[in-house]
Amino acid sequence: MQKKWLKWLLLTVMLIVGISINGNGVHADDSLQKVKDKGVLTVATSPDYPPFEFQVNQHGHSKDVGMDIELSKQIARDLGVKLQIKNMDFNSLLVAIQTGKADMAIGGINPSPERKQNADFSQIYYYGGESFLINKADTEKLKNQSALKGLKVGTQTGSMQQSLAKKNLKGTKVVTMDKNTDLILALKTHKVDAVGVETPVAQAYVQNDPDLKMLKANYHLNKQDTGSAVALPKGATTLQTAVNQSIDKAKAQHLIPQYLKTAGKYMKVNTADTSMMHYWKYFFNGLKYTLLISVCAVAGGIILGILLVLMRLSNFKWLSWPAVSYVEVVRGTPMMVQVLLVYFGLGVLVNIPALPAGMIAVTLNSAAYVSEIIRGGINSVAKGQKEAAKSLGLSKTDALRFIVLPQAFKNIWPALGNEFISVIKESSIVSIIGVTDLVYELNVVRADTYRGVAPIVVVMAIYFIITFTLTRLLNYMERRMKHD
């Protein structure tokens, strides 16, 4: 009987696989048609890589510019659709096209064999070569690539520069960071001795920062793997063909050099005034989103936290066990992973924009901690209070509502206040998916102005003012509660 059951199961699985394979063979790729039907080409990029892509301050508003942005505009024009730019961390670009968040990704992406396993690529549209950035004071000491042996070289996480450095710089320690702006700051503060970047990027920094110098890399490079290409979803052959046609057109009309010149003009605009006051609207915009996310997360966290506590205190295991499991999973995993899971993981089923996804992730995270705070508050209420409520004829629900919870909230107010303050600071993690909070705007200003420390000081001051003011307000309310 068991063998017969297994036989039917095997046949069913084979039938489903056969239908899937046959379906894939019959239906042609419709990636290009989907873009045309939407009327929008969604492009994922990481705008911290001048001159490829960066942002310029125009009348207090940020605008995505650079060679790659100009090429994206050309591709959208050739397709007859509008262009939509989605900003996020470089590490998330390929994930964005795999999960349907974007139709293509651009950002000085090199089509390495490893990346080709998870994405398709256009033809190479630009090859700039590889270089190192070093401090000008180290010019005599670091005259060539061989002089880097035994020193620290910084590269962006997941980049071609990271792979090339590990492969070619024997005896050198490779240090990786997510942002090029962080790498430059590490270089200028002597945390690393050199930073590996593409030559146009090195030239951009040298032209705008007199303390930096460029050192040519002597890698043996395969141009097909190390040039820049557009990343596309696997199997998107019709869209790939259309993108290649646009690149052919750009090459034939010599548009790529023009795109670079345009990027250079924008870079001069950015460096004309690098004062933090010039970028006050950036910081104000980031502050608005930080406070919005924090308030929504705390409010939603309290509501969901109370629900989780009620489930956990229930006599029904089918309610208590899910609540316990949820709290343990959330508390046992980093918030960054949770943010990525909500944005990209759930994005496979539902296309959630970055801001709502960030709010949901922070809310779900806060709810787990709030539920434990509330549970501790309930347990802190004297057992005699519950017995007195019972003797008065109050039901368990009424006793919890009118007797236990009011006292519990009074006891846990300081802990809830600390959770609110923690959410304000920890919500900065949503910047990895392109939410324009304070940390996101911090990185934009650093990339635009080539100033590493000043924007950090400004954002630190803003966070301190928020948390200091909130702490004083919470302390005042706590004293009022004790007085009452």
TrEMBL record:
Gene3D superfamilies: MetI-like, Periplasmic binding protein-like II. One of its GO terms (biological process) is amino acid transport. Keywords: Amino-acid transport, Cell membrane, Membrane, Transmembrane, Transmembrane helix, Transport. GO terms for molecular function: transmembrane transporter activity. The keyword Nucleotide-binding does not apply. It is found in: Cell membrane. One of its GO terms (cellular component) is ATP-binding cassette (ABC) transporter complex. Its main location: membrane. Belongs to the binding-protein-dependent transport system permease family. HisMQ subfamily. NCBIfam families: HEQRo_perm_3TM. This is ABC transporter substrate-binding protein/permease. It comes from Fructilactobacillus cliffordii.
